[in-house]
Amino acid sequence: MRLKLLTLALSLAAVSLPSYGEDLLDAYRQARANDPVLAQADATRLAVHEGIPQARALLLPQINGTMSLQQQSGGGSGSEVTNSGTTLDPGHLRTRSLGVELDQTILNLGDIANLQAAHSTADAQEQTYEAAAQDLFVRVATAYFTVLSDEDQVTYAKANEEAYRVTYDQAEQQYKVGIAAVTNVYQAKSFYESAKATTISDENTLANDRQALTVITGKPVGELKKLQPDLPLDAPLPADPQAWVDSSMKNNPTLLSAQLSVDAANHDINVARAGHLPTITASLSRAKSTSWLENGSYNVIGNGRYGNTIGLTLSVPIFAGGATQSKVRQSIDQRDEAQDSLESVRRQTVQNTLNFYNSVNAGISEVKSGKAAVDAAQESLDATKAGFQVGTQIMLDVLTAIQTLTQSESTYSLARHQLVLNRLLLKQSAGTIEFKDLEYANSLLQ
What we know:
Blueprint: H1 4-14, H2 24-34, H3 36-49, H4 51-57, E1 62-73, E2 80-81, E3 87-88, E4 92-107, H5 109-176, H6 182-217, H7 241-251, H8 253-273, E5 279-294, E6 301-302, E7 307-315, H9 323-390, H10 395-430, H11 435-443
Antiparallel strand pairs: 1-4, 2-3, 4-5, 5-6, 5-7
Helix pairs in contact: 1-5, 2-5, 3-5, 4-5, 5-6, 5-8, 5-10, 7-9, 8-9, 9-10
């Protein structure tokens, strides 16, 4: 009978056929080479690190060479008259100076604190980059398994649509031969048209999510390998949520970055306070100056000699219009802001870790229940079809049973993919996610 096609269509939807396309590691390698988000984080990290040699340079010797050429009209003494009454034009007095100077900071607590702040800022950015690198594992996996879930949804939607089409055709045939009411036709057509709309929507979602994966990898998405039918349903180890929280407090790079940002802000306070403190600078210079007259009636040249100058300068800030104290207050406020941000990140990290830990445990139960729900829905559909054949069930019962089976299969598929993702998210929140975790997730594909 044509109703047998119903079972065949839904059975095909429930079976995950082997696939030999891209796997999760292929997608990750492409993303590692092409992802603009990670590339941006790397460029920012390198740029921020340049602040260290720039801050250190202020504490190292500074060497400057100078050369100047000056001209004074009239030689600086006006015209002269000889004994014979002849007027001599003295011309222009030109002076050339050459010199080289070496300055060395002896004491500048502000520059020292600035170097310490640069180190802390660079370390914070290093952790930010590490967070971006760890996030790439999760972003690739999320995009990958989202596509797999979408493909399942399209498969189930098409099977659902086909099952409703078969039922609709059967209802029409039965109505034409007078063995069924027109109500059956209307009901079957309503479910069939709704299923067609669902298929179109699911196909559109799949296309969009495939493009989202392309944005990360920079490559067109081909055929993706699917999850194997049986997933390991092991609980997280250690089986203690507090142990995962403790790990996140020590290893989560986003949290570590926030802590280092507070350290940098504390150093910035010392930089601002150093505006009240004296500085000591040593200097050594060697220079000479040469003067001569040019374009006059006579020419006098004076050759200077190189001279050496050694000095030690003590600079004591006395008053800067209140700017120094304002900078101190500003730095303290910025430090308080960094501390508040740290506390927010700490609380969010704790929440995320506990949520993902609980989600993994709940996901295990959801997968088990989902599988049982699919089996029960299939048995219910078989029984409903049999009852419909003997007249104990109506058409609406069959349509509802088909819908229940499809929904159960969809929920089961989502639970399977989300369980794999939640394991990765738990590792990420704990700050311990590594390439081997992605390799393990990849081993679950077929």
